[in-house]
Amino acid sequence: MRKKNTPSPWAAEVEMQVQFFDLDPMEIVWHGNYVKYLEVARCALLDHINYNYVQMKESGYAWPVIDMQLRYIAPASFGQKLTLRAEIVEWENRLKIDYLITDTATGKRLNRASTTQVAVEIANGEMCFVSPAILFEKLGVPIP
């Protein structure tokens, strides 16, 4: 587990522009679409460590999201450019990722979030109480 207030060596950022189809009747991004934005950032992060969903499946593990927390700070609107950041903050017994969505031009925070995923052996459907060795290998950290 990473110590608080230290930057994660496993982080990724992507930029995107808010599309019209993501808006609600109030002409701001509908709150549920932030979950999609987290997935975009998470996939960039998992690509960064070479352990995205295809590699997970090939390794024999699924990693379902079991918990998600979102805090909405300010709305995003049509055409706005966003920076989506994801970083791994826990990995020993679960995979916890923290997110930050900001306005690309100003750096203003729009949303903070976190997700927790656990490893499940695909062959038997059993949840792992310790992250499998493949995750440690992908992160380049020693197996405890």
Written account of the structure:
- There is one protein chain.
- With 144 residues, this protein is α+β, with helices and mostly antiparallel strands.
- It has helices spanning 33-48, 53-59, 133-139; strands at residues 11-17, 61-62, 65-72, 81-90, 95-103, 109-117, 120-121.
- The protein starts with 10 loop residues before the first strand and ends in a 5-residue tail after the last helix.
- The mean pLDDT is 95.
Quick synopsis:
This protein has 144 residues and is an alpha+beta fold. Helix content is 21%, strand content 33%.
Which descriptors would you attach to this protein?
five-stranded antiparallel beta sheet; 7 strands; 33% strand; alpha+beta; 21% helix; single chain
Q: What's the overall average pLDDT, rounded?
A: 95
The tally of strands reads: 7
Low-confidence stretches: none
The largest β sheet comes out as: 5 strands, antiparallel
Q: How many separate helices? A: 3
Fraction of residues in helices? 10-25%
Order of helices and strands: EHHEEEEEEH
Helix/strand structural class? alpha+beta
Oligomeric category: single chain
- Form type: elongated
How are the SSEs ordered, and which strands pair?
Blueprint: E1 11-17, H1 33-48, H2 53-59, E2 61-62, E3 65-72, E4 81-90, E5 95-103, E6 109-117, E7 120-121, H3 133-139
